[in-house]
Amino acid sequence: VLEAHVVGCGAVAMRFLACATLLLAAAIAPIAARQANPTASPPAASAAGPAYVAQPRTDQNSATAHAQLLEKRRQGRIDIYFAGDSIVRRWGATDYPALLANWNANFRGWNAANFGWGADRTQNILWRLENGELDDVQPKVIVLLAGTNNVGTQPGDDAKVVEITRGIEAIVSLIRTKAPKATIVLTAIFPRHDNVAVMPTINAINTNLARLADGQSVRFLNINDRLLSPDGSLVDGVLNADRLHPAIKGYQIWADALAPIFTELLGPRADADSAPPPTGDPSAAARVTPPVPA
């Protein structure tokens, strides 16, 4: 009986050793894979947290863009600082040359710099501003447009409206802390017609945002009545085919609304401009095919 018991224990021990070996191999395999391919894509971003709690983007392209914007804030002179998502970013980006030309035509001489980044939600913008992109800049005017990526393509309930409002309010509060002398131009979320059913959500958020303005240090700018017809349909040509991002006509409407505010606060545009050079999507350079040598 004792011999049988010993043999049985030996078999259990062997099975335990085999399981331990398999578990160790499973743990080592991902490490070996990363060592073999150190440039592999990072894990996908985690699920978005609350709109009012700062959260970084985890993809490498966003990290590279953040580093570029940290460097950009140290260059030149910045009197007007644009913050936001892709709607902001594209306007002054090297990878959208037609929009960049429109940016220069409207803002050159006011030392305007673009710090937007594509696909950002309010929590991502909040994180970027908390982590250096506005530090020591001290612009005179800050234009903020944020929230459409939190809205998304599905209508939301009252709780969603309140959460997104809190997210934008958190950005405004942080801006006032980091740049207390700046006038904030809080821009209403633009219409999006990739799903027109979200418009009541956007309108409710914009109603809340209007209450954040005091007419002095925070000014609310809503140009949606110039982007939409009285019946709620889009004015022809103001948005791209995606029915989300502005076309040049839409950006020009925004510029025309901003110009009187900038003139009031900064005076007319100067002949020279000292803003930092424009930046773009870091991944765009990798997508450009280099010319074939002659």
Topology of helices and strands:
Layout: H1 2-36, H2 60-72, E1 80-84, H3 86-89, H4 97-107, E2 112-116, H5 122-133, E3 141-145, H6 148-151, H7 158-178, E4 183-187, H8 199-210, E5 218-221, H9 224-227, H10 248-266, H11 282-287
Parallel strand pairs: 1-2, 1-3, 3-4, 4-5
Helix pairs in contact: 4-10, 5-7, 7-8
Describe this structure in words.
It is a single chain. The protein has 294 residues and is an alpha/beta fold. The chain contains eleven helices and five strands, in the order H-H-E-H-H-E-H-E-H-H-E-H-E-H-H-H. The chain has helices at residues 2-36, 60-72, 86-89, 97-107, 122-133, 148-151, 158-178, 199-210, 224-227, 248-266, 282-287; strands spanning 80-84, 112-116, 141-145, 183-187, 218-221. A five-stranded parallel β-sheet has the order 2-1-3-4-5, with helices on both faces. Helix 4 packs parallel to helix 10, helix 5 runs parallel beside helix 7 (158-178) and helix 7 (158-178) crosses helix 8. The chain is globular. The chain starts with a helix and ends in a 7-residue tail after the last helix.
Which short descriptors sum up this protein?
294 residues; 5-stranded parallel β-sheet; globular; single chain; disordered N terminus; alpha/beta
